[in-house]
Amino acid sequence: MTEKHDLKKPLEQFAFYMDLLGHDILNNNQAVLGYLELILAEPGFEKKVRKYAERAIPHIRTSTLLVENIKKVLATRDIDPSSLKPIDLMGPVSRAPKNLERFFPDRTIKVNVVSKAEEAWVMGNSAVSDLVDNALIDTVKLDPDRSVGITIKLTEHECGGRMCWSLRIENPNAALPPIVRDTEIESVHLEDSSTAVRIVGMLFAKMIASSVGGDFKAEDLRSNGEKRGVAFTITLRKADGK
Amino acid sequence: MTSVLIVDDELFIVELYRDILQLRGYRVTGTAFDGEEALKKYTASTDKPDVIIMDHRMPVMNGVDATKEIMKLNPSQKVIFVSADVLVEKEARDAGAMEFLPKPFRMDDLIEKMERIVSVR
């Protein structure tokens, strides 16, 4: 009934305490979410107060996602390449509009998918869906407007002597934090942890992509003197026989 | 009126569920703060709940073990598992839970699942 942990190893210690703290954070998020729902169910509140309560709800989801992401980052250290299985990228892509609406209920988000294929099978694990979800969420976070337009492009191509699928997410109205333009994403946290906090979703995406033998890139979409535009590209190995 | 037993080791969570369920017209027959207390209360009770809302990570006896024991006593008991441990879903369902909700969830989702399993005879 009781799990035993080897607390002599620092990473094991961190994972153990993260598990305990994460559990408590999620319980507290449950209480906040539940009581906000109770407030919203009361008919007497003025419109402005209701709006404030509604705006707090997506932040509970973000907090939950952060906890889940830390757990997943810890899990990536144990990924055995032989445990990877075919995953269809169309799964998280087709869920994207509903998922984004859940995270950003106060925004209008249009998702346009450009793909010649109906399926895009890559080698990965369940974290691949989280990778796509996080990249999409970040492209919205980096957009200052309430109305957001995202294009997802799926292309099959050769990479390093084998076939790959690339999933490119473009938002012409988002803007990368300046430090990401000048530095490799994974190096940012070594230079400035306060900036790393702002791009934690990208750090997470990079780590998950690498853990399944793929890659994640964040680029400026700016051209002809345009001041905005972000493109995230996730590249993963195509699943054999698919 | 649908009756509910709430099992969770966090008092503030028990109070939240109780407040919301009572407001929505449910009858809370009891509360327990660990699996063993839930099992004792369930065994002693003559007023068996229609639904048990069961947490997993609790002292003395966890939710999966408590669900297994309760299902031995009454295989048709309806249990909704609610936990921050998403990885425990399969174990919970294997133990007999009809539904699983990862924390945090909307209370509307809990109510919807309760209504659905109560309507299954």
Would you write up a description of this structure?
- The complex is a heterodimer of chains A (242) and B (121).
- Chain A has helices at 10-41, 47-76, 90-103, 127-141, 178-182, 185-191, 193-198, 200-211; strands at 85-88, 108-115, 121-124, 147-159, 162-171, 215-220, 230-237.
- With 242 residues, chain A is α+β, with helices and mostly antiparallel strands.
- Chain A folds into two domains: 10-76; 82-237, Histidine kinase-like ATPase, C-terminal domain (Heat Shock Protein 90, 2-Layer Sandwich).
- The N and C termini of chain A lie far apart (42 Å).
- Chain B contains five helices and five strands.
- Chain B has one domain (3-106): 3-Layer(aba) Sandwich (Rossmann fold).
- Chain B has 121 residues and is an alpha/beta fold.
- Chain B has helices spanning 11-23, 35-44, 63-73, 89-95, 107-119; strands spanning 3-7, 27-32, 51-54, 78-83, 99-102.
- The A-B interface holds A 1, 22-23, 26-27, 29-35, 37-38, 41, 60, 64 and B 10, 12-13, 16-17, 19-20, 23, 57, 61-62, 65, 84-85, 103-108.
The unreliable regions of chain B are none
> Which CATH class of chain B applies here?
Alpha Beta
How many individual domains of chain A? 2
Number of helices of chain A: 8
- Low-confidence parts of chain A: none
CATH superfamily (homologous) name of the largest domain in chain A? Histidine kinase-like ATPase, C-terminal domain
Calculate the mean pLDDT score of chain B and round it: 93
What percent of the residues of chain A sit in helical stretches (DSSP H or I)? 40-55%
List the chains of the largest interface with their residue counts: A-B, 17 and 20 residues
Q: H/E series of chain A, N to C?
A: HHEHEEHEEHHHHEE
Judging by the overall fold, what is the CATH architecture of the largest domain in chain A?
Answer: 2-Layer Sandwich
The best one-word shape of chain A is globular
Secondary structure category of chain B? alpha/beta
Q: Look up the CATH topology of the largest domain in chain A.
A: Heat Shock Protein 90
Spatial order of strands in the largest sheet of chain B? 2-1-3-4-5
Number of helices of chain B: 5
* Global outline of chain B: globular
What is the percentage of strand-forming residues of chain A?
15-25%
- What's the alpha carbon Rg of chain B, rounded to whole Å? 13 Å
Total domain units of chain B: 1
